[in-house]
Amino acid sequence: MKTLKDFFIPYKGLSIGIHKYTFDIKDKFFEEIEYSEFSKGNLIAGLSLEKQERMIILHFSIKGNVVVQCDRCLEDLDYPVDIDETLYVKFGESKDEETDEILILPDSEYQLDISKLINEYITLAMPIRHVHEDDENGVSLCNVEALKKLEELSEKHKIDPRWEKLKNIKLD
Question: What is the pLDDT of residues 156-172, one digit of tens each?
Answer without folding.
Answer: 666 677 777 777 777 76
